[in-house]
Specification:
Shape: elongated
Helix content: 55-70%
Order of helices and strands: HH
Largest sheet: none
Distance between the termini: 10 Å
Length: 83
């Protein structure tokens, strides 16, 4: 296969992973009250397992847009490669 086709396929795969991450781990939305302060509610103290899951969700939700940007960039590069 030619290099642009492989690069385009690789970029599409990265874009698919980014889309799945964005759907599965959306960014957290902060609630702001009428006084302009962040509204925080706690039901109970979080366990170590819940904190670990929250940190993983935060990292993956921050990684997904960067992967999507990388996919677009690779597809743009594949467009201009001679093939």
């Amino acid at each position: 296969m030619k290099a642009p086709i492989l690069l385009n396929a690789f970029a599409l795969a990265i874009g698919l992973v980014a889309a799945i991450l964005m759907a599965r781990y959306p960014p957290r939305v902060v609630q702001i009250g009428k006084d302009g302060l962040v509204a925080m509610t706690f039901v109970s103290p979080r366990s170590e397992e819940q904190q670990r899951i929250g940190r993983r969700q935060q990292r993956l939700s921050e990684l997904a847009p960067w992967l999507l940007a990388l996919a677009f960039l690779l597809q743009f590069v594949a467009l201009w490669l001679p093939g």
